[in-house]
Amino acid sequence: MPQTIIEKLWNSHLVEEQAGAPALLYIDLHLVHEVTSPQAFQGLRERGLKVRRPDLTIATADHSIPTTDRSLPIVDQIAAKQLAQLEANCAEFGIRCLGVHSDRQGVVHVIGPELGLTQPGMTVVCGDSHTATHGAFGALAFGIGTSEVENVLASQCLLQRKSKTFEVKVEGTLGRGVTAKDIILALIAKIGVGGGTGCVFEFTGNAIRALSMEQRMTVCNMSIEGGARAGLIAPDETTFEYLAGRPHAPKGAKWDAAIERWKRLPTDAGAVYDREVSIDADTLEPMITYGTNPGMGVAINAPLPDPASVADPMERDSIEKALAYMGLEGGKPLVGHPVDVVFIGSCTNSRISDLRAAAAVLIGRKVNPKLRVLVVPGSQEVKRQAIAEGLPELFRAAGCEWREPGCSMCIAMNGDQLAPGEYCVSTSNRNFEGRQGKGGRTFLASPLTAAASAITGVVTDVRTL
Amino acid sequence: MKPFTNFRSRLVPLAINNIDTDQIIPARFLKTTSKEGLDRQLFCDWRYDAQGNAKPDFILNQSRVAGAQVLLAGDNFGCGSSREHAPWALTQFGFRAIVSTSFADIFTGNALKNSLLPIRVPIDVHAELFAAVAPDPDATIAVDLAAQTLTTPAGRVVPFSIDAFSKRCLLEGVDELGYILKQEGAIGAYEASHPSPINTAA
Ligand code: SF4
């Protein structure tokens, strides 16, 4: 029977299926960070267990790490303790840790791919819901909780229930100023934040094929915002080209054998998905969110929904509540709305191509002096590349702050945060109440929209600059 | 984990859809390296004002929640991050079950691993429960996990589904890892026939 790539990945990692229990699935790569792992290591200690496969496990520090000068001590003592705990746990259990002072440190979903650890055909997990990012390589990658982190550390396996398959077909050509971020924001606006619950997305269609690996990661990254635990894209020449020569990518005869294997992964002709949805790339506009969940998104020039015209009472309530939190009025577009902060970063949009895209808008221009603009590279490697291209000087000359790598204002755990009531155009992935700082208000958008808004000081359609 | 037993409880209604994990416990509290002490941080930004004073109009600050063990929430409860701090905070506050029309996938798995029962009910039952607690905060429901039923304040017995494995773990008070470690034979056999493509230490 023809199979989807999702079923192929599932079947090839089945360790065991016993009656009355979920399937036991083998995990090829386990990424660990400081926030969701300490209680798991403690659990191992209490049970007297070891890490089964340190060679398939790697850790980094990203969530609570400051993005200021790394040679200075960490001011936040609780964060400092958590970061030190990660290094101590990794040392005790024999895991390689790309910690605070590593020249490979970075946001966990940025470093896996750039090291060549994320490869087609793998299962990848991390105690982090944006693990779906790695699906861009044709891997089954999903976020897990701390109990499951402990399970994988101890056994390299997880008990899993099979998800439904959900094809997201994107055909056409993206217009000027429209990016991978807009594809995924449009999908979430269309199906809602619970639309993909119980499913794994496969993104297909010629508009997806045309994306670079970094753009594909942006798309897969936000699968969880559509409710799907994982989202993936079948590997192709673009994938192989990205991987060739990366530190952990196979070499020589192993590379040739890997390519042979990877070429058998794509969905077979005639395979059937449980659900399907289409997105027309030709008519897509730059997208922006206005509310307090990522499904509350609109085309940048479109009016916000007017709660009065929403029939369902709970839906009306939630839009009303969101607009009240955001201090916005329904029925009007966001374009022209004042902004206080712009954040360019996060595992969604902090790779070198994202920084280049923002730089191309900012070059020779100045950001509005009323604004604070943070540019936070996703990793030390991205930072090195940016330096080689002269991007930090360009950002600084435009009036932006150039920071050290980390999650930063995506999650506001490290001191990079909004003040109550402030508006931020952010390239990150979540606009929940208080996500970027208590009382802060987030507009999620692409790096192009973020850079354009940084210049004008108001929400701006980059095509009008 | 303690075995999950039947109980009867008042409901804490929170009629909001898509309650995300950043509301359940804001990220700034995730710098802890322990599982304990999270109950005060539950719904922190809805519960306390900027000075840290309890907001009297938020339901968790009202006397009716004392002893209540069931949260009645809107659709798609627990969306957002994978933080297990969310079910830790909920159970430390005293909740043993959440009733909604739907739950986010990762949250469901995390809750079940912490003796917190996500009970999914049809829309009409969901509406009936909200309608029942509005005039009568003391209305109670009964939860019977072995029978997989919820009994509404009006006495309607509503079945709910849960996978057999999670149910067994909850009723016996055991966790998954014990079961997984017993599968050593199968895990070893899988590893022997599937050489790993990577070595992170190399
Ligand atoms: S950048 Fe944001 S979404 Fe990504 S891993 Fe860090 S905190 Fe999570």
| Biggest beta sheet attributes of chain A | 5 strands, parallel
Radius of gyration of chain A: 21 Å
Annotated CATH homologous superfamily of the largest domain in chain A: Aconitase, domain 3
H-E string of chain B: EHHEHEHEHEEEHHH
Helical content of chain B stands at 25-40%
- CATH class membership of chain B: Alpha Beta
Give the proportion of residues in helices of chain A: 25-40%
Determine the CATH topology of the largest domain in chain A.
Answer: Aconitase, domain 3
Characterize the main sheet of chain B. Answer: 7 strands, mixed
The pair of chains with the biggest contact is: A-B, 82 and 59 residues
Small ligands present: iron/sulfur cluster
Oligomeric status: heterodimer
How many distinct helices of chain B? 8
The number of E-state strands of chain A comes to: 19
- Based on secondary structure, the structural category of chain B is alpha/beta
Read across the widest sheet of chain B, the strand sequence of neighbours is: 4-3-2-1-5-6-7
The CATH superfamily label of chain B reads Aconitase, domain 4
Supply the CATH architecture of the largest domain in chain A. 2-Layer Sandwich
Count of helical stretches of chain A: 15
Q: At CATH's second level, what is the architecture of chain B?
A: Alpha-Beta Barrel
Distance between the termini of chain B: 39 Å
Question: Which helices and strands, and how do they pair?
Answer:
The complex is a heterodimer of chains A (465) and B (202).
Chain A: H1 5-12, E1 14-16, E2 23-26, E3 29-33, H2 38-47, E4 57-60, H3 77-93, E5 96-98, H4 108-114, E6 123-126, E7 140-143, H5 146-155, E8 157-160, E9 164-171, H6 180-191, E10 199-204, H7 206-209, H8 213-221, E11 230-232, H9 237-243, H10 252-263, E12 275-280, E13 287-289, E14 297-299, H11 313-326, E15 341-344, H12 352-362, E16 372-375, H13 380-388, H14 391-398, E17 401-402, E18 423-426, E19 441-444, H15 447-456
Parallel strand pairs in A: 3-4, 3-6, 4-5, 6-7, 9-10, 9-12, 10-11, 15-16, 15-18, 16-17, 18-19
Antiparallel strand pairs in A: 1-2, 2-8, 13-14
Helix pairs in contact in A: 2-5, 6-8, 12-14, 12-15
Chain B: E1 7-14, H1 21-24, H2 44-47, E2 70-73, H3 85-93, E3 97-100, H4 105-112, E4 117-120, H5 123-133, E5 140-144, E6 149-151, E7 157-159, H6 164-172, H7 176-181, H8 184-193
Parallel strand pairs in B: 1-2, 2-3, 3-4
Antiparallel strand pairs in B: 1-5, 5-6, 6-7
The complex binds iron/sulfur cluster.
